[in-house]
Amino acid sequence: MEKSSLTALATQLMDAARGSSSGRSAQTVYGGPARILGQTVLALRAGESLAEHENPGEASLYVLQGRVRLATRDASDEGVTGDLLVVPDSRHTLTATEDAVVLLTVAKHT
Q: Whole-number mean pLDDT of the chain?
């Protein structure tokens, strides 16, 4: 069995994001290229975003801290601490509307 403190990791990654020129920091906590399921904790400084992109499979975002906006060309939704957002199966962006940390879970298409 493996156990991780997402709370401690969120704090560590947010500190790293605040000190980074990109305004973000991330760490994979489960999975990787050889696995179908992947989970990554991602920290974004307020105002930072991930450019429009597609997801490689089914995905969700669990907001560990802060506030984010998940948007497609046609719709957007905001998530706050404790919210679970289902990532749409279309091109989308993710923006931190305040300092935020999310757990991204992806099940890649096989």
A: 93
